[in-house]
């Protein structure tokens, strides 16, 4: 059925693991008449969790796109994983939607991922909707949960419907002003919504004050404005299990949630040609895509899926223009276009061919190997260098040394790891020059275990793994100068390059900065990229323990060249050794990743757990009550102290405790630990 941009609704379902997002998708598909009996996570037959490993684990591992039709509207739902180890897939889905629907378990309440996704959606300017699921469970305190939601996210969180019949039904509170509810009253909730919505429009406010009420049907524009400005965050109640609230939720999605012309537009920017600003933003031109089907195409790839039989599939959101079957598109800065041979809408693993995609559509193309995550697809050469404002993805911090079980399969394993990294923006693979190891890094133990299972069960590749590798980094604590002259003569043309440079520390997390302060052309301009290349090579292995260096500014201020013998390779070598000379004198220090943690445990175990964390260099920053007799402890701890932590936690809590972590920052390791690691690194180098 053809539809326009105004008929589209794009909603990302996000929230903590176990809140029932996948079950809610199944229930909505059933309520919209898209399928018969809803699938079940326990039975492994849901539409969105179609991956064999998802069915094995009984939870989502990546985002999945599902569409449904209701009241002549086309609703794209993006079901995202809730485990912190897979949060990268949830974050990367946000730019594809106008609305972030944050699902909360009525019994578990507000959890860590709930807080994080609400803040990320706010930062992206998304309209937010809170869905309280499982309202039919016994002993749920819904009035108390509403108060906690308002304490956590603001008084603008207002019920747009209320449960009735002890969680067996739901009463609308926006289009209706009366009805029975399990707590509060429909009339009071209706008044609160009217008060909040009309506040954004002076004319409606005046009418409301004069008449005492306004027909909700005429409040669509101020309602959308209130959503865009974060002045209103509707709270609705459902039970995916018994179907309560599902018709009201469908009505809410199609009648009140924004279409692509009504939500806040995503922020794009275009880099200037030859942009070489210190912070990478010099000459950057900000722009907004317009949801106009007649303009040139701008689409953003937010997910890559690689099937061992079908190949690569790129899932993208159209922000501007119309993508048609047989269209010719460019990928980012790539000057070679590709033809859209097939264009698909998605219903889980089902691919439904469609002739075109209008602004706001979410579609997919297959078998285009050059497309990667976060790529911009466009149909005009002048739109090269356009990017979408990036999502703040968490850093991979938990690593495993990995090798093929079968000798000679090293290249095959490397190619497979590259495919897996293309699918997952929070997965990284590195070859460590200092040790010769291949290290696979992710967000946690569960993240990497799922990748290893995929390699074994889907790609039939057996591997050997070694204990986790911590992603240590190195930096410097002082300014220092370095110098090296590279001179090599071997009968014919020689090599000559001389570099003087200065290094100084940058604030933690600033990365790397290269400054050209050469005067008088003593190093010809064409060799400066070679100097930077040599510096970057040297930073791959720091002087303390051989780990990657960061937070360093390098200023090249002098040097010499030879009209015949100077070559790029000479300046690469000279810069590399000049940097190492400076780094050894700049008080190098070793940095370790520090993670934010949240431990959920029985209240009677808090003493043992806090004492254990404190003994492992952890800093407790807060403690609060969860549901029932559950306590939640939060704080920061070095990642290296969490090896095998779940086993220790099980012992302290009788297997009733769980924890989540997310990367926070890098901090200096204690001096004794740095001395020990430096000694171990030196011994390895001496043996080599």
Automatic annotation (TrEMBL):
BP terms from Gene Ontology: ribosome disassembly
Molecular function via GO: GTP binding; GTPase activity; guanosine tetraphosphate binding; translation elongation factor activity
Stated role: Catalyzes the GTP-dependent ribosomal translocation step during translation elongation. During this step, the ribosome changes from the pre-translocational (PRE) to the post-translocational (POST) state as the newly formed A-site-bound peptidyl-tRNA and P-site-bound deacylated tRNA move to the P and E sites, respectively. Catalyzes the coordinated movement of the two tRNA molecules, the mRNA and conformational changes in the ribosome.
SUPFAM superfamilies: EF-G C-terminal domain-like (SSF54980), P-loop containing nucleoside triphosphate hydrolases (SSF52540), Ribosomal protein S5 domain 2-like (SSF54211), Translation proteins (SSF50447)
Entry keyword set: Elongation factor, GTP-binding, Nucleotide-binding, Protein biosynthesis
Residue ranges that the Swiss-Prot or TrEMBL entry lists as coiled coil: none
Organism superkingdom: Bacteria
Pfam family, any one: EFG_IV
Record Gene3D superfamilies: 3.30.230.10, 3.30.70.240, Elongation Factor G (Translational Gtpase), domain 3 (3.30.70.870), P-loop containing nucleotide triphosphate hydrolases (3.40.50.300), Translation factors (2.40.30.10)
PROSITE patterns linked to this entry: G_TR_2 (PS51722)
Alphabetized InterPro entries for the sequence: EF-G-like_DII, EFG_II, EFG_III/V, EFG_IV, EFG_V, EFG_V-like, P-loop_NTPase, Ribosomal_Su5_D2-typ_SF
Domain Tr-type G: 6-261
Name of the protein this chain belongs to: Elongation factor G
């Amino acid at each position: 059925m053809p539809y326009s941009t105004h008929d589209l609704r794009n909603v990302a379902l996000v929230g903590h693991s176990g809140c029932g997002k996948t079950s809610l998708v199944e229930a909505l598909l059933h309520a919209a008449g898209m399928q018969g009996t809803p699938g079940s996570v326990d039975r492994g037959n849901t539409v969105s969790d179609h991956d064999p490993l998802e069915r094995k684990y009984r939870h989502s591992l990546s985002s999945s796109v599902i569409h449904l039709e209701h009241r002549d509207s086309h609703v794209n739902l993006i079901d995202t994983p809730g485990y912190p180890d897979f949060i990268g897939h949830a974050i990367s889905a946000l730019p594809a939607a106008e609305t972030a629907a944050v699902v909360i378990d009525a019994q578990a309440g507000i959890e860590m991922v709930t807080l994080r996704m609400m803040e990320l959606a706010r930062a992206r300017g998304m309209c937010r909707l809170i869905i309280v699921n499982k309202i039919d469970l016994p002993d749920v305190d819904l009035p108390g949960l509403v108060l906690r939601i308002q304490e956590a996210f603001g008084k603008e969180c207002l019920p747009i419907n209320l449960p009735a019949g002890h969680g067996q039904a739901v009463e609308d509170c926006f289009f209706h002003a009366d009805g029975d509810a399990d707590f509060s009253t429909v009339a009071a909730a209706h008044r609160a919504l009217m008060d909040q919505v009309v506040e954004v429009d002076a004319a409606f406010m005046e009418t409301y004050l004069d008449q005492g009420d306004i027909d909700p049907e005429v409040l669509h524009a101020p309602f959308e404005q209130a959503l865009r400005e974060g002045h209103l965050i509707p709270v609705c109640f459902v039970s995916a299990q018994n179907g309560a609230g599902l018709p009201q939720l469908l009505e809410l999605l199609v009648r009140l949630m924004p279409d692509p012309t009504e939500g806040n537009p995503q922020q794009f920017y275009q880099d200037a040609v030859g942009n070489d600003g210190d912070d990478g933003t010099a000459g950057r031109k900000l722009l907004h895509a317009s949801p106009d089907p007649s303009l040139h195409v701008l689409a953003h790839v937010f997910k890559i899926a690689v099937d061992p039989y079908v190949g690569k599939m790129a899932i993208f959101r159209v922000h501007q223009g119309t993508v048609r079957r047989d269209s010719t598109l460019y990928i980012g800065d790539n000057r070679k276009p590709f033809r859209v041979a097939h264009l698909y809408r998605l219903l889980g693993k089902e691919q439904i061919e469609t002739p075109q995609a209008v602004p706001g559509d979410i579609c997919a193309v297959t078998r285009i190997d050059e497309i990667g995550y976060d790529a911009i697809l466009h149909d005009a050469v002048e739109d090269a260098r356009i990017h979408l404002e990036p999502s703040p993805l968490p850093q991979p911090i938990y690593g495993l040394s990995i090798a093929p079980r079968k000798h000679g399969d090293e290249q095959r394993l490397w190619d497979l790891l590259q495919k897996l990294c293309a699918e997952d923006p929070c997965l990284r693979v590195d070859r460590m020059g200092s040790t010769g190891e291949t290290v696979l890094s992710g967000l946690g133990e569960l993240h990497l275990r799922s990748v290893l299972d995929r390699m074994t069960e889907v790609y039939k590749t057996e591997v050997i793994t070694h204990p986790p590798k911590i992603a240590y980094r190195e930096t410097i604590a002082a300014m220092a100068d370095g110098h090296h002259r590279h001179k090599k003569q071997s009968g014919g043309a020689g090599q000559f390059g001389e570099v003087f440079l200065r290094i100084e520390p940058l604030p933690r997390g600033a990365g790397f900065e290269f400054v050209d302060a050469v005067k008088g052309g003593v190093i010809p301009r064409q060799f400066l990229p070679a100097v930077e290349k040599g510096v970057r090579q040297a930073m791959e292995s720091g002087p303390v323990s051989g780990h990657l260096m960061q937070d360093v500014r390098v200023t090249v201020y002098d040097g010499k060249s030879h009209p015949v013998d100077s070559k790029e390779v000479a300046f690469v070598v000279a810069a590399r050794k000049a940097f190492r000379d400076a780094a050894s004198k700049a008080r190098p220090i070793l940095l370790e990743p520090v993670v934010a943690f949240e431990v959920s445990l029985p209240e009677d175990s808090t003493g043992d757990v806090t004492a254990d964390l404190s003994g492992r260099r952890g800093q407790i920053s807060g403690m609060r009550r969860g549901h029932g007799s559950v306590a939640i402890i939060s704080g920061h701890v070095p990642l290296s102290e969490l090896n095998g932590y779940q086993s220790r936690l099980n012992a302290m809590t009788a297997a009733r405790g769980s924890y989540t972590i997310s990367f926070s920052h890098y901090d200096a390791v204690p001096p004794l630990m740095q001395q020990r690691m430096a000694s171990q690194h030196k011994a390895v180098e001496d043996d080599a």
